[in-house]
Amino acid sequence: MNHEEALILLPAYVDKELSLSEAVNFERHLNSCDECQREYNEQIHVSALIKNNTKYFEATPQFTKRLEADLPADRTKATQQKSPNSFWNLNWVNTWGSGGVITASLLAIVWSTSLFLATPSAQDKLTEELVSSHVRALEVDHLSDVISTDQHTVKPWFNGKLDFSPPVIELASTGFPIEGGRIDYIDGRTIAVIVYRHNKHPINLYIWPSTNKDSDIQRTTRNGYNIVNWTGEGMNYWAISDLDTGKLQEFAKSVRLEVNSNQRS
Amino acid sequence: MNDSTKKQRFQAAVMPHINSAFNLARWLTHGHADAEDIVQEAYLRAFKFFDGFHGEDGRVWLLCIVRNTFYTWYQQNKVQSQHTQFEEELHSSNEESDILDDANPERILIQKDSQRLLQQAMRELPIEFREVMVMRELEDLSYKQIAEIIQIPMGTVMSRLGRGRKQLAAILAVNNGGAK
């Protein structure tokens, strides 16, 4: 690679966007060229400066709420609620005035069915509770009670605070450093929350004992947050984040893999 | 697709990227209120055209719309936006204080000064460089993703990042020299 070519490719080398063979070729030139080394240092320096010292502007929770409210209304819900009244009353009561009793019982059936359908399942309620815990923690900016990037600090912190010992998995090498941990009260019990971060996105990992058998990773979304959950080695795991679902799934897989290999060793 | 599932799919694929959308809009416009307007408009557009979204990268798809919305707005508000920029600078001191949580006053002073200079330098950077820098350094997007958002070849992403960083270093050097 000559000097001109190297200068052109230099930013891609800084951003680790070169293929392995290109990178090797580039390095061969870089090692022998003062100008390229100067240029390289400057690029790395400015890149780090912006990454670490400029502000990442987040949308305010109020704005996010307003935005969601402004999306075109959910029409299906409205028609579901309306239909028992308008349809049944008009067609049954008014056409066959004497059919009032039948209408009433039919109405009762329709209503109770819709009530049954509207009652959230236990799973739904749990999801709701976890998401509001996640949002609450973000809103008051209180993600962690123990702040540490070290699993050996976070894990003992839970001692004496919980009736179980949550696995605290180190994932910094896969791009999910630990930020800390806290205790939360969900579904009628105290549970452990380990806080991870990927780039600017916090991930809350909720852990508590389970008597259910192991299950695969499942994905859902609620209020715009991505959620993955699974059961393994006697624990329930729920991870919630604004991270995209693929990345969150990757996070879940890494945790799961590590927990499994720790159990075996 | 009925409205309910469309909305659910939209909330799953697009809603989580609101901070990315806001950060980009905020860096492009320089103003908090303007950025909110842009993001709001972009979300409405995104929802409207969501049928054209087929499970690609939701963040890339949204940022592309945010950027287009911004450029439409920018063309219409060219003169006014320069005025807003000036106003923003007057108020920028509050905004910097919330980056700083270090308790050492001396360090705060140094940190504050260098952060202010950096923030200032980013503002002065021409917009075509600033946008790639924000996407690369703050959003951690790949060349391929940036190329898709701006609709330019990956080689252009590379050269803009290189030139943008160089130019930023130059602005910093001048501003730093001026301060002394």
Q: Secondary-structure map with pairings?
A:
The complex is a heterodimer of chains A (265) and B (180).
Chain A: H1 3-14, H2 20-30, H3 34-53, H4 61-70, H5 75-94, H6 100-118, H7 122-139, E1 146-147, H8 151-157, E2 178-186, E3 189-198, E4 201-209, E5 215-222, E6 225-232, E7 235-241, H9 245-264
Antiparallel strand pairs in A: 1-2, 2-3, 3-4, 4-7, 5-6, 6-7
Helix pairs in contact in A: 1-2, 1-3, 5-6
Chain B: H1 3-13, H2 18-29, H3 32-48, H4 58-97, H5 105-124, H6 127-138, H7 143-150, H8 154-179
Helix pairs in contact in B: 2-3, 2-4, 2-6, 3-4, 4-7, 5-8, 6-8, 7-8
What does this structure look like?
The complex is a heterodimer of chains A (265) and B (180). By secondary structure, chain A is of the alpha+beta class. Chain A has 3 domains: 51 residues, Arc Repressor Mutant, subunit A (Orthogonal Bundle), CATH 1.10.10; 45 residues; 143 residues, 2-Layer Sandwich (Phosphorylase Kinase, domain 1). Helix content of chain A is 52%, strand content 20%. Chain A is built from 9 helices and 7 strands, in the order H-H-H-H-H-H-H-E-H-E-E-E-E-E-E-H. In chain A, a hairpin with a 2-residue loop joins strand 5 and strand 6. About 11% of the residues of chain A have low confidence. The longest helix of chain B has 40 residues. In chain B, helix 2 crosses helix 3, helix 2 runs antiparallel to helix 6 and helix 7 packs across helix 8. Helices cover 81% and strands 0% of the residues of chain B. With 180 residues, chain B is an all-alpha fold. Chain B starts with a helix and ends with a helix. Chain B contains 8 helices and no strands.
CATH topology of the largest domain in chain B: Rna Polymerase Sigma Factor, Chain: A
Q: Class of the largest domain in chain B in CATH?
A: Mainly Alpha
CATH superfamily of the largest domain in chain A: MucB/RseB, C-terminal domain
Low-confidence stretches of chain B: 83-102
Listing every helix as H and every strand as E from the N terminus to the C terminus, the arrangement of chain B reads HHHHHHHH
